[in-house]
Recover the amino acids of this structure.
């Protein structure tokens, strides 16, 4: 018989979210400290781009998945930090004029606006390589071969078969009519690949990361990652710039295919609820161990920014 999920106190969940967001902020802050060998302006721009904002959704998912396999918090710090650095680099590059050409991110000027395009390009490069450096060299309570496999997983999620490939499809899709399957493929790469990596990496930090658990988490990650993107598309249509912290309506103005443009607003919201159900149901075999992941699935579809 499947074990039912435990529904936790919402206020307790908010405290957990804030505590872990603060934890990864402090971890990143300590690792992007002033280094005399790093040019000062580059260092300043790296800190500007990686610290002080964002939902920290990917680190939170890593911590929550680690709870399923009883992972050590210190090991999860390394995974959560590495994934967030990859995410931060991707935002810096995505905002540049050669990509999405945006001037606002997390309620303030984008990196290339604040520091110039050349520095922004180097910031993305530096944050990306720092992610792999820290994941590779930080001592963890797992075998070296397992840690090497985690580096490989993050690389695959970040590269041409994952996030970068999804961005390439996105850039090629302006003024193009994609069908729903093509749109899903794009977002499973562009958004979903790094969300999946955060979840699977968090679980692999623990002692009970059997293939069966990894398969359950993989199903959850697919549904949760797509739900995250559907809600992003809905919010891009419904929310204002001040609420989002980035330019609202940007995809529509650029004539990019979105779930809203393909399905309509109501159907897109219905899809997000269906994906939320799929994510929740995927976790049922894990019982109470997955309650934080379940709460994050709820947050993904209920959020307003």
């Amino acid at each position: 018989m499947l074990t039912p999920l435990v529904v936790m106190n919402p206020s307790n969940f908010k405290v957990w979210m804030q505590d872990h967001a603060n934890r990864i902020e402090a971890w990143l802050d300590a690792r992007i400290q002033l280094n005399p060998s790093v040019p000062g302006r580059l260092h300043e721009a790296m800190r500007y781009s990686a610290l002080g904002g964002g939902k920290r959704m990917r680190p939170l998912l890593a911590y929550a998945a680690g709870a399923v396999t009883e992972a050590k918090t210190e090991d999860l710090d390394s995974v959560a930090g590495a994934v967030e650095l990859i995410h931060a680099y991707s935002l810096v590059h995505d905002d540049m004029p050669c990509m999405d050409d945006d001037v606002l991110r997390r309620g303030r000027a984008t990196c290339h606006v604040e520091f110039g395009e050349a520095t922004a390009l180097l910031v993305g490069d530096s944050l990306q390589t720092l992610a792999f450096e820290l994941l590779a060299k930080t001592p963890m309570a797992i075998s070296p071969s397992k840690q090497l496999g985690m580096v490989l997983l993050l690389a695959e999620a970040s590269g041409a078969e994952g996030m970068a490939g999804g961005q390439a499809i996105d850039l090629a899709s302006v003024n193009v009519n994609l069908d729903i399957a093509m749109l899903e493929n794009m977002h499973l790469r562009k958004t979903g690949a790094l969300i999946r990596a955060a979840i699977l990496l968090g679980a692999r930090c623990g002692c009970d990361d059997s293939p069966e658990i990894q398969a359950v988490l993989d199903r959850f990650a697919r549904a949760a990652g797509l739900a995250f993107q559907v809600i992003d598309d809905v919010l891009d249509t419904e929310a204002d710039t001040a609420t989002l912290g980035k330019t609202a309506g940007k995809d529509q103005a650029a004539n990019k295919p979105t779930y809203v443009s393909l399905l309509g607003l109501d159907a897109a919201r219905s899809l997000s609820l269906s994906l939320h159900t799929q994510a929740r149901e995927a976790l049922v075999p894990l019982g109470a161990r997955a309650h934080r992941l379940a709460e994050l699935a709820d947050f993904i579809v209920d959020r307003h920014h």
The longest helix spans residues 211-238. Confidence is low (pLDDT under 50) at residues 1-7.
